Every structure is written in C-alpha cells, then in structure tokens.
Amino acid sequence: MSTRLVTFTLDGRLYGVDVNAVQEVLRGQPQTRIPLAPESVSGLINLRGQVLSALELRARLGLPDRDADREPMLVVVRVAGETIALLVDSIGAVMDVDDDQFELPPDTLSGPAREFLHGAYKLDSQLLLALDVDRAVAA
Fold first, then answer.
1. Is the per-residue pLDDT at 126 higher than 70?
2. Which of 32, 56, 82, 122 is most deeply buried (CB count within 10 A of its CB)?
3. Residue 12 pLDDT > 70, yes or no?
4. Which range is most confident: 18-22, 80-84, 135-139?
5. Cα dist. 90→28, 68, 71, 72 in Å?
6. Domain map of the chain by residue range?
7. Alpha helix (H) ranges present in the chain?
8. Model pTM?
9. What DSSP line would sit under 21-40, residue for residue?
10. What does CATH list as the number for 2-132?
C-alpha cells in the first residue's frame, strides 16, 4: 500500500503531508499581523476573499527563524473544516511512498518536532518526515 504526500522543506529537512489535506500551494502572500498572537501565528492572509490564519511551521516545530530575506511558501491545508496556510521554506513534489518505508520518528529528532510527526519514510537519499497536520495545527 502506498501513501501520497505533498513535500516541502524546513531548515534543510524534507517534510510531507497527506495530499488529501492539501488545498493548494502558493508563493508568499501579504500578511496582516495579529497583535498579541503566539509566535507561531504569523498573521492573516486574504486568499481570494477567504481570510486564512498563517502558521509559521518553523516556530511550531522549534526550528530557528527563517532568514528575513527569504520569502516563505505556503501550503494551504484543510483541518477540521478550517483552511489554514502553513509557512514553509520551499515546496517539493508530490511523492508516493510505500508503507514498508515507514518508521517511527527517529531518535535523533527531539523537541516539539517529534510530537507533530506520524513518523518518517526512508528514501534513497534522505528521510521524509511525515507531519501530522492535525496535531501541528491544533497545538
């Protein structure tokens, strides 16, 4: 059995989310900051008349801040009936991975990132970390 994931990078690591949760991927969009919002809530985005919360996945996963000169990309996902934009470093491809490639999150991964992962898929050249988008957004 195989799983289809939309991939993206954060801090040099490859992540993926189930393709069925993804609405679309976009280049960076103008954001409106929300006063007193948590660090992981980057702001609000107006996407063709629909207002979305933008979550900075780097902050959510405990990764260092993105360089100020790098514009984030957006992975727009649907979670529990809501549409949310996840800010990522770059967008990858849609990949099919087999269940026999799946393992629990590696022991070398610690902190918040570990609790937001289903696990990892061993690819030929790297690990693909499978993000549990429901948990990552709800936290």
1. yes
2. 56
3. yes
4. 18-22
5. 10, 15, 9, 7
6. 2-132
7. 57-60, 112-115, 133-138
8. 0.90
9. GEEEEES----B--TT--TT
10. 2.40.50.180
